[in-house]
Amino acid sequence: MKPADHKIYLASKSPRRRELLRQIGVEFELLLLRDQGPRGPDVSEEVLPNERAHDYVVRVTREKAEQAWKIMLARRLPLRPVLAADTTVVVDGRILGKPANEAEAMEMLRALSGRTHQVITSVALHRDGDTFQQTQTSDVTLITLTEQMMRAYCASSEPYDKAGGYGIQGMAAVFVKHIAGSYTGIMGLPLFETAQLLNQAGIPTL
Fold first, then answer.
1. Which pLDDT does position 159 carry in this prediction?
2. What is the CATH number of the domain that holds 55?
3. Which end of the chain has a smaller Cβ tally under 10 Å, C or N?
């Protein structure tokens, strides 16, 4: 593939991922996947029976990148590499997605309170029929949260578009006692691994 320019397509609605790509000087256009509608989502995020968290994140991310590539071809858009990512939070082997309401957000925060959990983010870059992928795992330890702290946080808009019901880059930063891994990976796009994938595709960073 000869890219139309040095831009990529980003198959993600996450504003954090957009900010992180801009941080390392990557130009992109959005190529969004459908997540609802009469025909259902372009990529299902349902966990398969007995699927491990790492395998789940890798699979969903790869499917997002490949589906976005197909959409690019179907729309006859300029040919560019497609970047996709997916993040999940895991505690005791249990996958925590995005809470649908306050009750779910509270339940997730209770499960994470005073504990160390894992944040797994996979990044995939698809081009010329090939998918290049890296997956990063970080350990995050939260302080013990009081009911008042959790209710105050859940009264904000922050928990409801984030895996595990919290965002480390927002108000929940005060809950985080320790991290081991990648801060940007916890945000949703590990920049070291992402830059490696982009460089493989001939996309400069910085």
1. 95
2. 3.90.950.10
3. C
CA 146 centroid distance within chain = 28
Compute φ and ψ for 187, nearest 5 degrees.
-70, -25
User: Domain total for the chain?
Assistant: 1
In whole angstroms, give the CA distance from residue 69 to residue 31: 9
User: Where are the extended beta strands (E) located within 106-197?
Assistant: 116-127, 130-142, 176-180
Q: Which of 5, 35, 86, 92 is catalytic?
A: 86
Contact between residue 197 and residue 125 where contact means Cβ atoms under 8 Å apart: yes
Query: Do the domain assignments include residue 103?
Result: yes
Q: Which residue in 57, 51, 53, 13 sits closest to 33, CA to CA? A: 13
Q: Is residue 163 part of a domain?
A: yes
**Among the listed residues 99, 85, 97, the one whose alpha carbon sits nearest the alpha carbon of residue 134:** 85
Q: Which residue has the tokens 């649908």?
A: 100
Span 128-176, pLDDT tens digits: 888 999 999 999 999 999 999 999 999 999 999 899 999 999 999 999 9
Taking the mean position of all CA atoms in its chain, how far away is CA 106?
A: 21
Is-catalytic flag, 86?
Answer: yes
Residue 206 located in a structural domain: no
Domain that holds residue 153: 8-200
Given a contact cutoff of 8 angstroms between Cβ atoms, the answer to whether 140 and 119 are in contact is: yes
